[in-house]
Design brief:
The protein has about 400 residues and is α/β, with parallel strands linked by helices. It is about 40% helix and about 15% strand. It is built from 17 helices and ten strands. The strands form two sheets. Strands 2-1-3-10-4 form a five-stranded mixed sheet. Strands 7-6-8-5-9 form a five-stranded mixed sheet. The longest helix is centred in the last third of the chain and has 23 residues. The radius of gyration is 37 Å and the shape is globular. The N terminus is likely disordered.
Amino acid sequence: MRKTRPWYLLIVLLLSVALTAAAACGGDDEEEAEPAPAPAPAAAQAQAEPEEQAEPEMAEPDDVKIVLQWVTQAQFAGYFSALDNGFYEEENLNVEIQPGGPDILPVQLVAAGAAELAVQPFAVLLSARDQGIDVVAVAQVFERSAYRLVSWADDNIMSPEDWAGLKIGVWAGHEMVSATINKFGLTEGGGEDQVELIGQGFDMQLLLTRQVDMASAMLYNEFAQLIEAGNPADQFRVVDFADYDTNTLEDALIARGEWLADEANQDIVTRFLRASAKGWAHCADDPADCVEIVLKYGPALPRAHQTWMMNEINKLMWPSTKGWGVIDRTQAERTAGLMLEYEVISEPADLDTAYTNEFVEAALEGFSDADRFRNDYTPLELDVEDLLPEDG
């Protein structure tokens, strides 16, 4: 007799078959996945979706600190012009301009590595090198000298032959005065037949109060102070050292020799000089705008004084016989020779290592002759009234 399966086993078997069938159909209610499209050819992809070109990364700007010879004024307008007009930024430079002052020694800061560049007279550079300080001139900004000695006209001091027994106000680094004293057979001291040198501040009070017979003055600054004090220019006599061949080169740009030995720093200097040349060119073309720029960074001196200064500063550079910033070998030799002959320096200066035109020449590549020399430069026509403050 055949055995039959229990009824509940049959139900279980039927349920199992039903579930298997449902799993096989799986997802009749869900969207059927489409097959992935075949990849398009590379050319077609480039045409359909142009790839954005990544911009080259800009190198971090190079930091440059320059120390000025004195406070913020139009004497240094070209550097502030280059900063304000973005010329340094165009050269990928981050430039810091540190004003100078009576307690600041720019040569020492450069020598110590606290600044990359400084503005100093070429004669000061030679004096520093004579003391073993490793500094090099990379540009000669002022082609002409503005340093003068000034006396009252009624004192009748006509030439250095009349200096015996006089008191002369001088600043530190008075090489031109010492050279002239020595050239005319005089000596420094307090005797009746000697020339007494008196330390002078950067104003004309010692002369105005007649505590000295002659005072130091820059045509662009202290001489203007005399006129601003209410004295007509014809009340004074002015000694131009060029008349006695004892004038020396003034404002140069200097750097530390060891720092310059690095090719990367040579590139930095070249870029700095190129931007600075553009800044000074702007001041020649638009002196009024440069005065406003200077006032923006240093408002201590009035606009009338800065305008006078800007005009006199431009005269020291333009027209240029060698091109802006180029150091003239003849003038450098003359400056060094005077300093040695009149014992301002103790050893002959090695000019082959004291300065270089390599970087300024590289910086001026591409400049037109008009921008390099400005042979058609014409200064502003200013008179005494232009020195008076705006309020009268």
